[in-house]
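To fix ideas, we reproduce below a protein record of this kind.
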Amino acid sequence: MANTTGVKTSTGPAYVQPTSGWHIVWGVLLIAAGVLAVLMPVVAALATGLVFGWLLVLGGGCEIVYAVQTRAQEHFGWKLASGVLTLVLGIAIVILPLAGAESLALLVGAFLFVGGVVRTRLAFRFRPRRGWGWVLFDGLLSIVLAALIAAGWPQSSIAFIGLLTGFVLISTGVWRIVLHRLAAP
């Protein structure tokens, strides 16, 4: 059924228009890549580090171009410095991808720790409500994972990033296939 905006809707969960079988093919390829990443975590970590490095190089280049284009505006020096720093960091990661993967593991650990602390505090604010224990569990689990990353850093960083990349690829492939199956008539 179409509403006034012309977008298809249904009375149940969000309606997803079935497309072609390419969603399934893409999902299967992502799952296969994820399995390979889990089986070869060092290769996956290096690939992830290189992709991250090249994204920083591209982002830094764009920041520098933007800073130069807006040099007549305020804070030109800060914009340019930010772009140069991002570019240099990206180049360093591309040149030293193992160090980049190790740094990425530390960054993920910091993200997990901060998120865990926030969710733990949030759980105690939700305490009388139903399900607050799940929020607490998630927060504490994130803190424990962050502590494990910090304890094993840098020795286990490469394996961690490779396995994390593999699990994310597998998860993404699975949801693409499931979403396509749910959308099928």
Observations:
- Residues 22-183 form one domain.
- The chain has one domain: 22-183.
- The CA atoms of residues 112 and 142 lie 5 Å apart.
- The mean pLDDT is 86.
